[in-house]
Amino acid sequence: MPYIVFAVSFLLSFLFTRPTIYLAKKLDFVTDSKKKTHPAHTHKGKIPRGGGAPIFLAFLLTTLLFIPPNKIVVGILLASFCMVVVGLLDDYFDLSPYGRFIANVLISVLVIGFGLGIPFVSSPFGGVIRLDQWKIPLELFGTQHTILVVADLLAIIWLVWTTNMVNWSKGVDGQLPGFVGIAAIFLGLLSQRFITHDISAQYVMLLSFIIAGAYLGFLPYNRYPQKIMPGYGGGALAGFWLGILSILSFGKIGTALLILSVPMIDAVYTIIRRIKNKQSPFRADWGHFHHKLLDIGWGRRRIAVFYWIVTLVFGIASLFLEGLEKLIAFSTVAILLVVFIIVIEQLKQNHFNKV
């Protein structure tokens, strides 16, 4: 069944992307580097945007076909629709990053309201850390609800973080859909090891393979030279969905940290760097890890493949490593990546000083 849903999602995404490219050009839904410069964009010329639309449609239709609707599934679909709408509006109007951030928070609150949450996380030293001790009963429209203050707040923060963190790693052709598809497959495989919410482990795996198929079906049009960009919709949906997958089976946040270690560390370093330079952490710039690799002469194909391979390697590692081992692996990657970025910046600075 996972292979069937993957194939259906892949095919639908692939088929929906071509007419999306046509409509984007027709409606001038494009990014033209000659008319408007963007500090983080690496492409040249006029490229259609709106890649989130075919990805979402593939996800929506495949989910409706293969997964029985329940409260959490409906919440995911509704929140995902809101996210792709925000993404498409941003692709066309270039919304304020602060407005996008507020939308991320509200959409995360929406899906948490449908029952998604993190009542506990696995401790790297064994056992679990309970997050559902502080409860607030609430009656809404005649129905009794319970707010798990710490669990729900952590889930909201986590979803907002993954939404933005993954979206930042879409700077070169093919980069995003490749590593997102690979990460989703491994999160699906690992979902079989844990207790889940009001959605069976089997359906969590199906959701994972649907997401993987939607992004990998989009990849042929986004690989170098890209014919369409994922846009904010495609990037934000990727992070939002991976964040959801990582908490649908309790205890997989550590696994997601390892699989997505490069985008995660890049995002943390970027925020620290911007604050240190007295810049807004929300404002885009040329300073992400993929930008550093471009600066030292790496091509777009090589950068994309690098992200895919790293995600694949850590995905395989996550199948065998336990909690503390994952923490050690993540810490090692963090140190190596930060050292690498510092060395690149130093070499670049030395080059400019000589010039």
Automatic annotation (TrEMBL):
Its main location: membrane. GO terms for cellular component: plasma membrane. InterPro entries: Glycosyl_transferase_4. Its cofactor is Mg(2+). It is found in: Cell membrane. Mg(2+) binds at N167. This is Undecaprenyl-phosphate alpha-N-acetylglucosaminyl 1-phosphate transferase. One of its GO terms (molecular function) is metal ion binding. GO terms for biological process: cell wall macromolecule biosynthetic process; cell wall organization; lipopolysaccharide biosynthetic process. The keyword Ubl conjugation does not apply.
